[in-house]
Amino acid sequence: MQYLSTRGFSPQVDSAQAVLTGLAPDGGLYLPAQMPEFSWTDCVKADVLNMAEMILSAFLPDIPNMQTLVSKAYTGKFDTPELTPTVPVGDFHVLELFRGPTSAFKDVALSMLPQLMTAAKTAKGETKDILILTATSGDTGKAALEGFRDVDGIRVCVFYPHGGVSQVQRRQMVSQEGSNVAVCGIYGNFDDAQTGVKEIFTAFEEKQLPFRLSSANSMNIGRLVPQITYYFKAYRDLLDKKVISLGDEVNFSVPTGNFGDILAGYLAKLLGLPVGRLLCASNANNVLTDFILTGCYDRRRPLHKTASPSMDILVSSNLERLLALLCGDSATVAQWMQQLSTQGYYQIPRQLLEKIQKQFWAGCCTDEEGADAIARVWSRYGYLCDTHTASGWAVAEDYVNQTRDRRPMVVLSTASPYKFPAAVLSAIGEQAAGDEFAQMEQLHGATGVKIPKNLSNLRQKPELHQTVIEKDAMCTFVLSLKKEN
Ligand SMILES: *Cc1c(COP(=O)(O)O)cnc(C)c1O
């Protein structure tokens, strides 16, 4: 299957090459030239690993032995063989995506990506080591480090905004073990880290580096495709519980940052899954809410630090893929992206905006409204959710109140509440005390909800990666990584 850049200035590549490369050479993102043939009805009948295999094979046919890769990626890694269970909570259904090795939804994709990358490397006869460069708003970093640790022929380097991730998220990253990992803080925010990574991709000629660069951000198509699976899985769960009959539409509310998770939902819809509205939920950084309302994407505003740091983003990379899919004209997309980078905004035409509004709805909530949602869900239903999930919940409630849309609602739960214990404690009316580990214990004491092992174990782990650098030193840091190991 051929892949094209959203900006149209890069040559076509096959799916293995797209996974290997990550970002297209013209700065765009890869998309399949055509959507694959797919039987969504067969897919919803399969178990979760077979669902993943069907979806991955459809999008990435140039990567062989998908069944083996899927089984290696997921078997025994999640705390339930279902991987992503759906739990009824009040009138909604919560899709739990945080049951993996680092307690965030990124695990679903980043358990799979190393398998895809290694297989793509073999398929393309690539002999150089690969360096996975990743900017993280908190969760991708750890999930990538854990997914790629000690994988032969691949190294991984993560940049995170110093002071811009939660205490637990930081501890998770700086304590990472593995012979092929590097972790580095930057003085700047997530957008600085992401921009820096994108610049590194275009700064070097192939031969200047001892490795080939690739990305584990959702810019990589191999990161996006595994996320389609859980939309099918959630649909199947609602079928099994007789909440819906085959063909009924379901709405999904998605806590959104880089627009990857929600775009996977849109791809599920393009494969035929009966998805109704996709709700794009933001925190106080509500660039996407404004965009979906007005058609003007405007990043000329301060980035707020919020209680849901993984969504603190002003430039949502994957929106570019949605624009390319809906507008079909790569030259125009390239022009908007150019304008975004030079002038800080762009405006799409009315017609395109209407197309987007048919499929998507958007809302945002402040930290306070998010905290209220956590408290409400806890006191009414005895279900504890994290700060990101809370924005998805709050926006889903707003949507139902405003539209009276009665289709079943699935709220995607993207992290364990134990990754943000201080904020969650305060939301349920407890005063957080002590360090992040004391807070985890306190939250456990107050709610009885189990602490994920990977988080409670962190306390014993030494901090191995304490480097923090200026944002314009990122290139130098990458060059300093030797080809050893
Ligand atoms: C990454 C992340 C998000 C945002 O997902 P995108 O794919 O970037 O939109 C939301 N919640 C949590 C907990 C995350 O880690």
* Whole-angstrom Rg: 21 Å
Distance between the termini: 34 Å
What structural category do the secondary elements indicate? Answer: alpha/beta
The percent of residues in helical segments reads 40-55%
* Main sheet summary: 6 strands, mixed
What's the count of strands?
16
The order of strands across the largest sheet is 4-5-15-10-11-14
What is the averaged pLDDT score? 95
Query: What proportion of the residues form beta strands (DSSP E)?
Result: 15-25%
The small-molecule ligands in this entry are: pyridoxal-5'-phosphate
Describe this structure in words.
The structure is a single chain. This protein has helices at residues 15-21, 40-45, 48-59, 66-74, 106-110, 113-123, 139-148, 167-174, 190-203, 221-224, 229-240, 260-270, 287-294, 319-327, 330-343, 350-359, 367-381, 387-403, 421-427, 436-447, 453-456, 474-480, and strands at 2-5, 13-14, 30-32, 86-89, 92-96, 129-135, 154-161, 181-187, 211-215, 250-255, 275-282, 296-298, 345-347, 360-364, 409-413, 468-470. By secondary structure, it is an alpha/beta fold. Helix 3 packs antiparallel against helix 11 and helix 19 runs parallel beside helix 20. Bound molecules: pyridoxal-5'-phosphate. Pyridoxal-5'-phosphate binds next to helix 12.
